[in-house]
């Protein structure tokens, strides 16, 4: 069964501090993992796309890590700002088998 779980469900941090969001998944076969930021009332914005062979990707103050062996990803936000207040979404895509 393919599942994706994020933690923590919610987080309150002080401005200027760092924080980390976790994503665990059981999706197999794995294609890619994406982190999105969604501001209230707006559509999601892609922060990063990671494939099986990529361990770390950065996008400004956002650093995403991926461990394909343990099926875990983290999103690190450095020096948090008020504008970082949003929903963060981890999306995992599976490879399609031929004929599906």
UniProtKB/TrEMBL annotation:
GO terms for CC? T cell receptor complex
**Pfam families, sorted:** V-set
Question: Does Transport appear among the keywords?
Answer: no
The protein's matches in InterPro entries, at most eight in alphabetical order, are given as:
Ig-like_dom (IPR007110), Ig-like_dom_sf (IPR036179), Ig-like_fold (IPR013783), Ig_V-set (IPR013106), TCR_alpha_variable (IPR051896)
| Assembly and binders | Alpha-beta TR is a heterodimer composed of an alpha and beta chain; disulfide-linked. The alpha-beta TR is associated with the transmembrane signaling CD3 coreceptor proteins to form the TR-CD3 (TcR or TCR). The assembly of alpha-beta TR heterodimers with CD3 occurs in the endoplasmic reticulum where a single alpha-beta TR heterodimer associates with one CD3D-CD3E heterodimer, one CD3G-CD3E heterodimer and one CD247 homodimer forming a stable octameric structure. CD3D-CD3E and CD3G-CD3E heterodimers preferentially associate with TR alpha and TR beta chains, respectively.
State the UniProt keywords alphabetically. Answer: Adaptive immunity, Cell membrane, Disulfide bond, Glycoprotein, Immunity, Membrane, Receptor, Signal, T cell receptor
Q: Which gene encodes it?
A: TRAV10
Q: Which Gene3D superfamilies match?
A: Immunoglobulins
Q: Which SUPFAM superfamilies match?
A: Immunoglobulin (SSF48726)
Q: Where in the cell is it found?
A: Cell membrane
Q: Does the keyword Phosphoprotein apply?
A: no
Record protein name field: T cell receptor alpha variable 10
User: Where is this protein chiefly located?
Assistant: membrane
């Amino acid at each position: 069964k393919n599942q994706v779980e994020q933690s923590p469900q919610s987080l309150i941090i002080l401005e200027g501090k760092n924080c980390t969001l976790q994503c665990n998944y059981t999706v197999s076969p794995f294609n890619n993992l994406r982190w999105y930021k969604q501001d209230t009332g707006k559509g999601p914005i892609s922060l990063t796309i990671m494939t099986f062979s990529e361990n770390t990707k950065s996008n400004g103050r956002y650093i995403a890590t991926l461990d394909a062996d343990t099926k875990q990803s983290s999103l690190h936000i450095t020096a948090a700002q008020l504008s970082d207040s949003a929903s963060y979404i981890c999306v995992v895509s599976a490879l399609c088998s031929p004929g599906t």
